[in-house]
Write a structure and sequence with these properties.
With 238 residues, the chain is of the alpha/beta class. It is globular and about 45 Å long. The chain has one domain: Metallo-dependent phosphatases (Purple Acid Phosphatase, chain A, domain 2). 25% of the residues lie in helices and 25% in strands. The structure holds fe (ii) ion (FE2). Fe (ii) ion (FE2) binds next to loops.
Length: 238
Amino acid sequence: MLIYQISDLHIHDNIDNHVYENFSQLMSFFAKSPPDLLVLTGDLSDDDGSKQAYQHIKSLIPQNMNYIIVPGNHDKCSVIHEVFPADYGRDNDFCHSLPTDSLDLVFVNTSSYSLPQKQIDYLGSKHIRKGSVLFIHHPPQLISQGYMALKHSLKNHKAVSQAISKSNISHVFCGHFHNEYEGEFDGYKLYLTPSPAFKINLYSEKLQLEEPSPAFREIKIDTKEVTSTVIELSNSIG
Ligand SMILES: [Fe+2]
C-alpha cells in the first residue's frame, strides 16, 4: 500500500502566494502518480477554519483520490465536515481507523491542543493489530527544546506517548512542528513531515523560519513492514 502524507498546508483565503503554489505542485504530482491513500495531517487552513481556504484545497485534490483529513489546531472540525463530508471528524471525539491486510491505520483529533481521553483509550483498543500506524497532528514528544516544543506542544503529550507505548501502534506520523524528523521512542517510531507553507527550525528557542518547498512524505506498507521517506518535488523533478 502506498500512502502520501502532507501536513500544515496553511492555505490562505488569498491564494496569490508561494503557499498555494507549493500545494498546487504537490497536487499536480499526485494526479500523475496517485497513492492508494492521501492523508492530510492538519492545519489545512491558515485562517483558522476558513471555509474558503478549505474550498481552495478541495478544488485541487485530484478527483477519485482517496483521502482522509486529520484536523490540526488551525482547523475547525465543523467547517471541515461541511466542505469535505465524511462519516468521521464531526467533533473532537472522533476515533477512526482503516484496516489494511495486515495492520490498522488509526486517525485521531488533537485540534483542541490535547488528545481527549476517549481517543487515548481508543489507542489501546484490542482490535488495533500489532505494528499499526497512527496519524496525529501534534507530535507526542517534545523532540527538542526548540520554539515549537517550548511554546506549542501537545498539552497531554506525556499521557499520549505512554498510551502509544502500551498500544499495538508502532509508527506515528505527525506534522505541527513544520519540519522533518525521524526518531525511535519507547516502543514506537516517530516521523514528522515538513510544511510546504513555512518551515520552522526544530532546535532554535526563538521562532526561526526556513525556506519551504513542495514536500510530502511517502509511506509504503508491505505486509507488516512500514518504510517512509520525505520527498521534495523541487529536488526530485530537477
Ligand atoms: Fe501548522
